[in-house]
Amino acid sequence: MTPVLDRIRVGSAPDSWGVWFPDDPRQVPWDRFLDEVAEAGYSWIELGPYGYLPTDPARLADELDRRGLAVSAGTVFTGLHRGPSVWDATWEHVGRVAALTRAMGARHLVVIPSFWRDDKTAEILEPPELTREQWTHLTRGMERLGRAVRETYGLDIVVHPHADTHLDTEAHVERFLDSTDSALVNLCLDTGHYAYCGGDSVKLIETYGERIGYLHLKQVDPDVLADVVAHQVAFGPAVQRGVMCEPPTGVPALEPVLAAAQKLGVDLFAIVEQDMYPCAPDKPLPIATRTRRFLRSCGA
């Protein structure tokens, strides 16, 4: 018998259409993305990189309404481990995204730490491990951001552990959660990135359930991942090798992840994100349609 996952709200994102940047000739146009994400059977989307979708709230609301779509969250990248000196520039960027997110009626802002290794060139930008002082900057900075975003825009931040950032492995994620105030900062658990970095999503949900505020659903191909890890391939080239794969062909299995999330007894967005940058323009829609069908078979 298929379980009923009535606390899980499934959506997709520009990422599943190969969109990583506001403007790139190798990406599908924004209106095609909106047409196809609705055609694939999703009713929730994320904004993606700021500037990919129209940033005028009235125009974007009209485009979404015509397709029966609504926004679950906006996304920002931050480098708060660098300390108070980056706050003003961070807040300027966050403010633009948060204002549009709020205008679309969403309640979440996904916050991704900056990369220590360039995701396109593989250039090492910073040491992969933070110092004690940088950890303090990161945790206090995220708390400050959580408070400011809530007070100014009425949004909750959910911090996204991500490959090739300083918040990636199980040890890093647990340290981050143990060092931050749950009233200000919670987690966007991306099942693919967490598996990419060796983490167990079900274990994290069962251990830190009260800190799980949002989900990204994706899987990794274990064979490609083993080669990526063995040769220390950066995340961008790893994606081009197909490290993120179509469910249910990869890991982690999504059924137990969704079941564990349902047991939390709270409403959660679960947004499909299959990294495919760059990809052929006709590739995403069939995958997105099959993925939506698969998630329905799981009860979501």
TrEMBL record:
Domain Xylose isomerase-like TIM barrel residue range list: 34-297
InterPro entries attached to this UniProt entry: IolE/XylAMocC-like, Xyl_isomerase-like_sf, Xyl_isomerase-like_TIM-brl
PANTHER family, sorted: HYDROXYPYRUVATE ISOMERASE, INOSOSE DEHYDRATASE
Domain of life assignment: Bacteria
Protein name: TIM barrel protein
